[in-house]
Amino acid sequence: MKVLIVHNDLRVYWRHRLFFLRDFLKLKGMDLYAVELFGKGSPYDFESFNKTESWWDCLFPDKSDADLNKHQIKDKLFAKLDEIDPDVIVGGSIAFYSGALSLRWAKQNKKKFIMFDDAKPSWVKRNFFVQGIKNLITNQIDGLWLPSDEYDAEYTKLYKKSKIKYLYGYDCVDNDLFKLNSEKQIDNKKIITVSRLVEKKNVKSLLDAWKHVEDNDDTYSLDIIGDGPLSAELQQYQKSLGLRRVNFLGAIANDEIPKYLFEADAFVSPSLYESWGLVVNEAMAAGLPVILSDKINAAFTLLKDGENGYLFDPYDQEALPRLLLLFIQLPDAVKMKMSLKSRELIGKMDFNYMGNELLRTINSFNAGTYKKPPLAARAVINLWYGRYTTIEWDKVV
Length: 397
What we know:
By secondary structure, the protein is of the alpha/beta class. About 35% of the residues lie in helices and about 15% in strands. It folds into two domains: about 1-170 and about 350-395, 3-Layer(aba) Sandwich (Rossmann fold); about 175-345, Rossmann fold (3-Layer(aba) Sandwich), CATH 3.40.50.
């Protein structure tokens, strides 16, 4: 049995998942392969592709989608799929090249296709016609891999469980990396955020909220990890507000992030849109209570309001400053209880859960059956190549 994971790029967050799944599936008699399309053009392309594993390849390591046309992408991907000849393909949304083309190849070769997605349909603005076409294509997949069953309420309206196998838990991190084999302390007097400094992350409103904190508390500091086009502007804004306990730490190497999280007392994110938000997993694995915008999808699975943190509306200018100060003024014993609750909740969303969900779904497929698309769906699948856009990485769309 050969299983292939294909996406636009598979670095940073995917790297640890892939190595885990490679070993996990090997023990079950299955071979995992990984194919990423582009080495450039991603918000994660600061981590270059280095071919060190025979089972993991990048088709265009020195190019972005903008350097190629759809036929070049399709021909190269189909050649690689023909070479590997996987029994099951796991790919991104059919809105992207990776999902659309992999589904086409799977249907042409009578193989199974599992689509992963963490964007809720109601949060993505599409007109009726475009959404209808997407639904027509997506209903031809064999499996739908979502972060959690909290997504079911939206997805089952469009894609019935009686026709598509649902599985969960792909949006996870290596929890053990963030524990640092140490006992967590909640007396560091630091709150931390980790994000790219772009419009969508809403860091300016965090600085506004922190002004209220500094006006009412003289003990806590705010650490901001990350870089981006708004870095200079935000640091200038900090100065204009007269904030004395805000530290812009810039970009930090990935392997150093766990230490910074572990040495904080809480994590905050005022983001205006996150299809999931894996940094929330990381913060909770490090034992941090989390103060999260209700525009972060991870919050609805991982945050229990009042138990391991607080949920707020980022458009309510009074909510975040109030909750920051509320947390700061809690007794240490209550903060520690929140910390332990974060560890407990994230412990249910680990790599073993991810692997078992994928294995369960693969084993449930009947190799003798083929889900033949109706004529209209088959025509659309053969016409649609997908696309690649990262606009939502920076702006609310």
